[in-house]
């Protein structure tokens, strides 16, 4: 790597984050997404335990929020599986490749858990139910708890080992090329959905740092226009959490 230690960026640290390996790549957006995944799964776990099965309107909101969470997580994992891990495997040692293979395998373990949760939310959000389905709520609570624990382990593994490999093997230019090839320019509707979701609960100082990066001004504007409406809906969604 051509980047020397004294020019490395200061890595972002957010609540719940396990590690932030030093290196030439500024991983702030990765950590913002990880924060959002942890935050939502903590909230879903509490909400499913405590929301009465009879509160149909709240379950509709919970299903909608789960779809947003799952969409963001699926895209996050797809970018890693299709872009990040292959780039690293071409450069890594045998031990590093084994770590990356384990990361892919963990994605495969998480996906069925998420699908089971989605089915549970859909059932409880059905518009016509003959009675409060407490059995479905209890089953969903077990599934969400399993998904939460699995993803928390995976994120910790990624932050301690996989991101350390990224920092050893890639430059910021390499990272930018991967993002350009596998992320691209998001559509406005997607930005409007994801920016307030990802930013919610992130400390203001950290948000200012994210928004101050090149191209961050548009995200700042979207956040300012959507944050209050998102916060109100968030409060209704997790009113029992």
Automatic annotation (TrEMBL):
Organism of origin: Nocardioides hankookensis
UniProt cross-references to Gene3D superfamilies, sorted A to Z: nmb1532 protein domain like
Any Pfam family: Hemerythrin
Location of the Hemerythrin-like domain: 29-162
Lineage, highest ranks first: Bacteria, Bacillati, Actinomycetota, Actinomycetes, Propionibacteriales
Protein name as annotated: Hemerythrin domain-containing protein
UniProt cross-references to InterPro entries, sorted A to Z: Hemerythrin-like (IPR012312)
């Amino acid at each position: 790597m051509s980047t020397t230690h004294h020019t490395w960026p200061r890595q972002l640290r957010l609540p719940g984050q396990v590690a932030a390996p030093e290196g030439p790549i500024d991983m702030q957006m990765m950590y913002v997404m990880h924060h959002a995944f942890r935050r939502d799964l903590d909230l879903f776990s509490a909400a499913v335990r405590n929301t009465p099965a009879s509160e149909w309107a709240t379950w509709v909101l919970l299903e909608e929020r789960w779809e947003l969470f799952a969409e963001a997580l699926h895209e996050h994992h797809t970018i890693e599986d299709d872009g990040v891990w292959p780039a690293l495997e071409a450069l890594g040692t045998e031990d590093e490749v084994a770590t990356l293979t384990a990361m892919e395998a963990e994605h495969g373990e998480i996906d069925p858990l998420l699908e089971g949760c989605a089915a549970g939310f859909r059932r409880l959000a059905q518009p016509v139910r003959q009675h409060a389905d407490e059995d479905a709520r209890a089953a969903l609570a077990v599934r969400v708890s399993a998904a939460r624990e699995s993803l928390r382990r995976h994120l910790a593994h990624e932050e301690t080992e996989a991101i350390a490999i990224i920092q050893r093997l890639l430059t910021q230019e390499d990272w930018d090329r991967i993002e350009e090839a596998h992320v691209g320019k998001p559509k406005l509707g997607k930005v409007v959905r994801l920016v307030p979701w990802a930013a919610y609960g992130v400390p203001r100082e950290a948000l200012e740092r994210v928004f101050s990066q090149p191209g961050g001004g548009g995200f700042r504007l979207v956040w300012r226009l959507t944050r209050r409406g998102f916060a109100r809906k968030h409060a209704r969604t997790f009113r029992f959490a």
